[in-house]
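Section 3.1: Structural characterization of target chains.
Under the original work plan, the team committed to producing a structural model for every single-chain target entering the pipeline before any wet-lab resources were allocated. The record below documents one such target. The sequence was received from the expression subgroup and is listed exactly as submitted; it comprises 89 residues.
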Amino acid sequence: MSTTAIIARNDKRKALAEKYAAKRAELKKLGDYEGLQKLPRNSSPNRIRVRCTQTGRGRGCYKKFGLCRNQFRQLSLEGKIPGIRKSSW
C-alpha cells in the first residue's frame, strides 16, 4: 500500500491539471510554448499517475476499473464486479 503522501501528491496533480486545462488548451492552440513552460509543471496531465482506488498501488492498474490487478482479481472472484467472471474453456 502506498503512503498517504504519495496518494495526496497525485490528488494535487489531478486538481492542478483540472484547474489549468482550459489555459493549457488555449496556449497550445495559439502555439505559445513559452507560456506553457511558465505554467506549473504538475499541471500537465501527463504527470498524473493511475493508482488503485483501494490500495493506492501505482503499477498494474486497470484504468477502466480503477483497481490494481490484485484487487481486481480478488473482487472479481468474489463476484463484486458486475459483468466479470473467471473464464474457462
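The CA atoms of residues 51 and 58 lie 5 Å apart.
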